[in-house]
Design brief:
By secondary structure, this protein is mostly helical. About 60% of the residues lie in helices and about 5% in strands. Strand 1, helix 22 and strand 2 form a beta-alpha-beta unit.
């Protein structure tokens, strides 16, 4: 292997390995709460998660969590997300090279991306979005390769990866408009057979959603969902969310209509939100990289545009179009996971700043750019070393331990989504809360619980700041200032 090729291969390996090690070292071993606990546990039991079910994430996570049998199940799934984001960093490195970056510039910019707060915080915990991001990132790389003269297989690969990304999380669909634009503006137009092959590749990935009704039917037929014993409970969390074996449940699961997601998706196309998306992009870069680097990112965009405006337009569109949804969707408390690709775009644009000549002045400018980027990566890493620190019994572990003495093995615990996922992890995944049934319900339908209490021991866990008393329930224990446990009488 020639020295230059060896150096590029070594830099590519470092672009992946260094972030992957950092993410694995900073991953928690304990179950979290909220969506994270669900995504730590559902793949292990091959269950069904909240909409849209994320079948590619669940299926790949099921294989990963059983084959990579090291540490706790929560840690394994956290690490899988870290590996996914590290691979997305590798894709950023590759696109930067396509934009004319030197190996050192691409590597240093990639490390800076890897250690920004938004990226690292999502890479160290289980996230379906992380798998969608890596699929989207490599799809963008493949499409850029095709636009820069690569074979048609790169075109098909880009759409195949987009389909897989959408099967991991539907947010990946926002890269498709850029690919359509790219196919239309590229001098070498995509033929109809090539376009048909690309469409089939997308559909092939989306066929993974057939997992939802098939697995749901199996879960019900074999009595795997403990909530089947509770009349009117519907599909239980972890095992059979929304019961998608039924047409109604499948529609709810695929569309997220309970959260009005389709309406917000349509609102994304309102041009009035464009300025909000641009502002989100600008402030996101400023917060992650600082004003100087943000200026350099925009300078890189100008340079890249002058070299190849078509590829630059497609890559920029693919990485930022999802911002339109992120600024209109109010049901998301963690909007940063919808903006990971926007931060990712900084790597190829910074890479475009690499001087293309070997004159002394340009060599010095290139060295200064590398130094600036490495300093940025190093200071960002140092600033966010807090991700390595973990407290004992952190996340959802404490609530599992707290309820165990009060709820017997045949008990049913009803609580809101935030804690229900932690408790379900203990009940259904790692066995730290065996024999309990977990019901997620934020509406506190006490009459239904009293009906269940005729045959089952029912406990309700609430935030005492939100609920003063429950009719027909007795206060059993105060777990902390935000958790009060009640027992329900028939």
């Amino acid at each position: 292997m020639k020295p230059a090729a060896f150096a590029r291969a070594a830099f590519a390996a470092l672009a992946f390995v260094v972030p992957a090690i950092a993410y694995a070292a900073s991953a928690s071993s304990e179950p979290a709460s909220w969506d994270t606990a669900e995504l730590q546990g559902v793949p292990y039991i091959l269950g069904i998660s909240h909409p849209t079910g994320f079948p590619f994430y669940v299926l790949l996570g099921g294989v990963w969590s059983h084959a990579f049998a090291i540490g706790s199940i929560a840690w394994r799934m956290n690490v899988m997300s870290g590996v996914a984001i590290a691979l997305a960093c590798l894709a950023a490195y590759g696109v930067a090279l396509e934009f004319g970056a030197s190996g050192l510039v691409a590597l240093s910019a990639t490390w800076w991306l890897a250690f920004t707060r938004n990226v690292w915080s999502h890479a160290s915990r289980a996230e379906a979005q992380d798998l969608a991001v890596v699929c989207a990132a490599f799809a963008i790389y493949a499409f850029a390769r095709w636009m820069r003269g690569g074979r048609n297989r790169w075109f098909v690969a880009a759409f195949a990866l987009a389909g897989l990304g959408m099967a991991a999380h539907p947010n990946a669909l926002w890269i498709l408009p850029a690919f359509v634009v790219g196919a239309l503006i590229e001098r070498r137009r995509a033929s109809w057979p090539l376009a048909a092959a690309a469409a089939c590749a997308v559909v092939a990935g989306l066929l993974l959603y057939a997992y939802l009704p098939l697995r749901s039917a199996y879960v019900v037929a074999h009595g795997l969902d403990p909530t089947l014993a509770l009349a009117g409970a519907g599909g239980g969390i972890f095992w059979n969310y929304n019961d998608p074996r039924t047409l109604h449940g499948l529609v709810l699961e695929l569309t997220g209509s309970e959260s009005q997601t389709p309406a917000y998706f349509l609102a994304s196309f309102n041009p009035l939100h464009l300025k909000d998306a641009v502002w989100a992009f600008l402030t996101g870069l400023r917060d992650e990289y600082g004003w100087i680097a943000t200026f350099l990112i925009f300078a890189g965009f100008v340079i890249a545009w002058r070299r190849n405006w078509r590829t630059t337009l497609v890559v920029a569109m693919a990485a930022t179009t999802a911002l339109l949804f992120s600024v209109v969707y109010p049901n998301e408390s963690d909007v940063g996971r919808y903006r990971l690709l926007a931060s990712w775009l900084a790597v190829p644009l910074l890479g475009a700043l690499t001087p293309q000549s070997r004159r002394t002045r340009d060599t010095l400018l290139g060295a200064a750019l590398v130094a600036f980027l490495f300093v940025g990566a190093g200071t960002t890493f140092e600033r966010h070393r807090v991700f390595f620190r973990h407290a004992p019994r952190e996340g959802g572990r404490w609530v599992i331990d707290a309820v165990r003495p009060y709820v017997p093995r045949d008990g049913t615990i009803v609580t809101g989504w935030l804690d229900a996922t932690s408790l379900a992890y203990g009940a259904y995944v790692d066995g730290s809360l065996p024999g309990r049934i977990i019901v997620s319900d934020d509406t506190l339908r006490i009459e239904r619980y009293r009906a269940w209490a005729k045959r089952h021991r029912i406990f309700v866990l609430v935030n005492p700041h939100d609920v003063d008393a429950l009719a027909g329930a007795q206060d059993l224990a105060k777990l902390d200032d935000y958790h009060e446990l009640f027992t329900v009488e028939p």
